[in-house]
Specification:
The protein is of the alpha/beta class and about 140 residues long. It is built from 5 helices and 5 strands, in the order H-E-H-E-E-H-H-E-H-E. Helix 1 crosses helix 2. It is globular, with a radius of gyration of 18 Å.
Length: about 140
């Protein structure tokens, strides 16, 4: 387990698995970028889905790390020739979920959506201690 509130590179090194060739960042990339660059293998691949305020591409140069930004709706927004692939990917993920091979990142069902629940969940997210996705019900 890696604690994202502590320096990443020494924790990953302590796992004894070697430098990862692939790193995927889903949140707070700007906060973790220096640590990620430190831990990723030379010629590694770095993917992200969030929107850091700044991203210095020069940090990737020394290790020749490629940068891959993912946005679920790029194909449909731009009508790319491979637009149908999105449906295929989603169908494959659904099959893997149904088969129990992958599972949701949902870790907490917070209950019915109302002001009190929203305040509690928002405070948890702001604290930096939330893990996975928090589900709100009753829309």
């Amino acid at each position: 387990m890696v604690d994202h509130r502590k320096p990443l590179a020494p924790q990953v090194a302590a796992l004894g698995l070697g430098a990862p060739g692939f790193v995927f960042s889903t949140t707070q990339t700007g906060q973790h970028l220096t640590g990620i660059i430190g831990l990723i293998a030379p010629q590694g691949r770095f993917g992200l889905i969030d929107d850091p305020a700044e991203l210095n591409g020069m940090l990737f140069k020394l290790k020749a790390i490629s940068l891959h930004w993912e946005l679920m709706f790029t194909r449909s927004l731009f009508g790319t020739p491979d637009m149908a692939e999105q449906g295929k990917l989603l169908n494959e993920v659904a099959k893997l979920v149904d088969a129990g091979r992958i599972r949701s990142t949902a870790t907490d069902v917070a209950g019915k959506i109302n002001a009190a629940t929203l305040r509690r969940v928002h405070a948890q997210i702001e604290s930096g201690t939330a893990r996975g996705k928090i589900v709100l019900e009753g829309f």
